[in-house]
């Protein structure tokens, strides 16, 4: 894929004229509202690619669920929660990169493209080194809030001690994937996500059922797939980025402009709101898992299975959010409120259709889905008793899980944090009251209220998106 800016970086008046032409061309491309066909062209690949992500958890859970006892499925579930905690906390690297690169692509400026990649890339490198340095205390801290038997703890440690070395790979992939998605590089995004996920699945099936490597095999399969994704992302970015100027002085000037301190502060502010939003999400997730662990290994395993099913649904919504974020970034970069309104309508429409479809799937095929994860009868029975919660989930969670993509794409992230904080407070209120009275069902009631709150508290902020897209409004949000 050739970059539309591929001829830049040569210096001289020719570069300036070409840059002006590209800027005008990019602005013309966002001077209209998005059609259903344009939206679907971005949406379908992004949904397909994001849907493969929870398949990793599905396969890992299913493989462990067919081993000798429930400590395997519970241990891998706990290990997965630790990494979800780490990587969800740092997920702003991908979400923020998508919005910044979409806006940079609309402006058509080489400096903006480099800035959208270099700043989060440096952040990813530093953060991954911190994670590696603190790997022992991180696991120890997780064990303080988890009530585990010795066998489950051993499985969790084996899984964790291998996968922690993938931190630089994962965070690098976040930045590269977000940057490519923002530029609508669909093919590269698909290969990064779907290619690495399917490689992971194939290797897991080879390493565990065939070679008998157990938990180590599952972890090694994931680590190899993460390395594959990074290589694909680096190759794709090299193809997209315009070449650096030949003269050293011009290269240094470009890099200084890309790493402008004021712009870095703006990126940090945007990402700080996303970080705080993720802290709220992780607080809810860890309270949920820690509470579930107090009900015993069987209940913890049943909850883990049901959460994996719901994760498939959330990643469908995440695909819609990713597509919407691209157009929202273009709407802000091109100062086009009409485009933002059109994307908002399409986002809600696709959310409603997807939510109804997933509710129908839960009503018709919930029991067969459970059997895909485990053949342990006690876990299946415990999960079946919770099945009706999965019926409500797609309907109440959908808007909050998709519309947030418009806010991140436009780099208007404070409402995302505030609404998630409000949802967390609602979760805690229900958790305090319902868990003592209803046990695990009370825990699932609180879980459902959290996702409902993310929808209810976010949607009223849509007017702020229109404000930053209006040409006369020059203030950043």
Q: Overview of this structure, please?
A:
This protein is an all-alpha fold. The protein has 20 helices and no strands. Helix 2 packs parallel to helix 10 (186-210), helix 4 (70-89) packs across helix 8 (150-163) and helix 4 runs parallel beside helix 14 (297-333). The longest helix has 37 residues, at 297-333. The chain is globular, with a radius of gyration of 22 Å. It starts with 11 loop residues before the first helix and ends in an 8-residue tail after the last helix.
Strand content: under 5%
Order of helices and strands: HHHHHHHHHHHHHHHHHHHH
C-alpha end-to-end distance:
33 Å
- Based on DSSP secondary structure assignment, what is the total number of beta strands? 0
Inertia-based shape: globular
Main beta sheet, described? none
The helix count comes to: 20
**Helix coverage percent:** over 70%
Structural class: mainly alpha
Show unreliable segments: 1-31, 473-477
What value does the average pLDDT take?
79
From the alpha carbons, calculate the radius of gyration and give it in angstroms.
Answer: 22 Å
Summarize the structure.
Helices cover 84% and strands 0% of the residues. It has 477 residues and is mainly alpha-helical.
Architecture blueprint of SSEs:
Elements: H1 12-29, H2 36-51, H3 53-65, H4 70-89, H5 92-107, H6 110-133, H7 135-145, H8 150-163, H9 167-182, H10 186-210, H11 214-240, H12 248-258, H13 261-293, H14 297-333, H15 337-373, H16 377-384, H17 387-409, H18 414-438, H19 440-458, H20 462-469
Helix pairs in contact: 2-10, 2-14, 3-4, 3-10, 3-14, 4-8, 4-13, 4-14, 5-6, 5-9, 5-13, 5-14, 6-9, 6-12, 8-11, 9-10, 9-11, 10-11, 13-18, 13-19, 14-15, 14-16, 14-17, 15-17, 17-19, 18-19
């Amino acid at each position: 894929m050739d970059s539309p800016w591929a001829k830049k970086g040569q210096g001289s008046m020719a570069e300036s004229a070409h840059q002006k032409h590209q800027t005008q061309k990019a602005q013309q491309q966002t001077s209209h509202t998005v059609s259903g066909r344009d939206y679907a062209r971005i949406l379908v690949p992004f949904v397909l690619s994001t849907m493969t992500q929870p398949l990793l958890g599905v396969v890992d859970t299913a493989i462990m669920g067919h081993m000798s006892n429930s400590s395997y499925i519970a241990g891998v579930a706990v290990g997965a929660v630790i990494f979800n905690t780490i990587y969800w906390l740092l997920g702003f690297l991908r979400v923020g990169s998508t919005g910044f690169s979409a806006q940079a692509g609309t402006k058509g400026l080489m400096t903006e493209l480099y800035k959208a990649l270099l700043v989060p890339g440096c952040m990813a490198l530093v953060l991954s080194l911190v994670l590696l340095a603190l790997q022992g205390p991180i696991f120890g801290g997780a064990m303080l809030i988890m009530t585990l038997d010795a066998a489950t703890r051993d499985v969790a440690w084996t899984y964790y001690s291998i996968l922690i070395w993938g931190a630089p790979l994962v965070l690098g992939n976040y930045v590269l994937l977000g940057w490519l998605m923002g530029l609508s590089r669909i093919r590269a995004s698909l290969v990064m996500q779907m290619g690495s996920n399917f490689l992971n699945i194939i290797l897991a099936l080879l390493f565990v059922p065939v070679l008998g490597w157990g938990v180590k095999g599952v972890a090694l399969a994931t680590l190899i797939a993460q390395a594959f994704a990074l290589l694909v992302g680096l190759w794709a970015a090299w193809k997209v980025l315009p070449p650096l100027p030949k003269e050293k002085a011009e290269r240094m000037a470009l890099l200084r402009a890309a790493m402008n301190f004021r712009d870095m502060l703006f990126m940090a502010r945007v990402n700080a709101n996303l970080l705080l939003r993720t802290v709220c999400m992780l607080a809810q997730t860890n309270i949920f898992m820690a509470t579930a662990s107090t009900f015993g290994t069987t209940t913890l395993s049943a909850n883990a299975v049901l959460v994996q099913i719901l994760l498939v649904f959330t990643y469908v919504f995440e695909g819609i959010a990713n597509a919407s974020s691209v157009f929202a970034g273009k709407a802000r970069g091109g100062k086009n409120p009409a485009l933002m309104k059109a994307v908002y309508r399409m986002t809600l429409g696709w959310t409603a259709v997807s939510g109804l479809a997933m509710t129908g799937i839960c009503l018709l095929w919930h029991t067969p889905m459970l059997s895909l994860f485990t053949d342990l009868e006690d876990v299946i029975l415990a999960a079946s008793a919770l099945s009706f919660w999965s019926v409500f989930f797609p309907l109440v969670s959908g808007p909050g899980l998709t519309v947030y993509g418009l806010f991140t794409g436009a780099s208007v992230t404070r409402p995302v944090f505030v609404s998630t904080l409000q949802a967390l407070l609602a979760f805690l209120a229900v958790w305090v009251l319902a868990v003592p009275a209803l046990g695990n069902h009370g825990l699932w009631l609180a879980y459902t209220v959290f996702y409902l709150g993310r929808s209810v508290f976010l949607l009223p902020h849509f007017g702020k998106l229109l404000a930053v897209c209006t040409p006369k409004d020059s203030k950043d949000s």
